[in-house]
Write a structure and sequence with these properties.
about 160 residues, alpha/beta, Rossmann fold, 5 helices, about 35% helix
């Protein structure tokens, strides 16, 4: 008998408040009940994952089972954050989906080389974003088997 899946937490690193709002609305429209948290850049992403500063409360900021990562952010961009995350033995198992405006072949190639699990160019319309979120939900939240307890010390 299989145990029902616990909804995984999704963490999105995105500096644009409008993109964060549209993503939250797309998740609601698609009826994805997974907890969705946001950070504004790669520095905050690493603080969240390492439970530093404002993100020290494990109950309030659970370890994500999936990270949606923008490449172009201030302070520490997504490229740097991806390399740092995938170099950390306690974090590297967390799947990372690049969700960015870039269509540059060098960004696609570098993202996969650095350990990204998927690369998606952000759609420009809300309807297309809903399609992307539905596909993400189907694939990452229904089809794929993810570790039960991702991240720190749970490999």
């Amino acid at each position: 008998m299989t145990t029902p899946r616990q909804p995984i937490t999704i963490l999105m690193a995105e500096d644009d408040p409008d993109d964060r709002l549209m993503t939250r609305e797309a998740f609601a429209e698609c009826r994805l009940g997974n907890p969705l948290h946001f950070v504004a850049d790669g520095e905050e992403l690493m603080d969240y994952l390492h439970r530093r500063g404002a993100y020290a409360d494990e109950a309030r900021y659970p370890m994500p089972g999936l990270i949606l990562l923008d490449l172009n952010m201030p302070r520490k961009d997504g490229r740097e954050a991806l390399r740092e995350l995938k170099a950390d033995p306690e974090l590297r198992q967390i799947p990372v989906v690049i969700l960015t405006t870039s269509k540059a072949e060098e960004d696609v190639s570098a993202s996969y080389r650095d350990g990204a699990n998927s690369f998606i160019t952000k759609p420009v319309s809300f309807g297309a974003l809903i399609d992307v979120v539905q596909a993400l939900g189907r694939y990452w939240l229904q089809i794929v088997d993810l570790p039960a307890e991702p991240g720190r010390g749970r490999e």
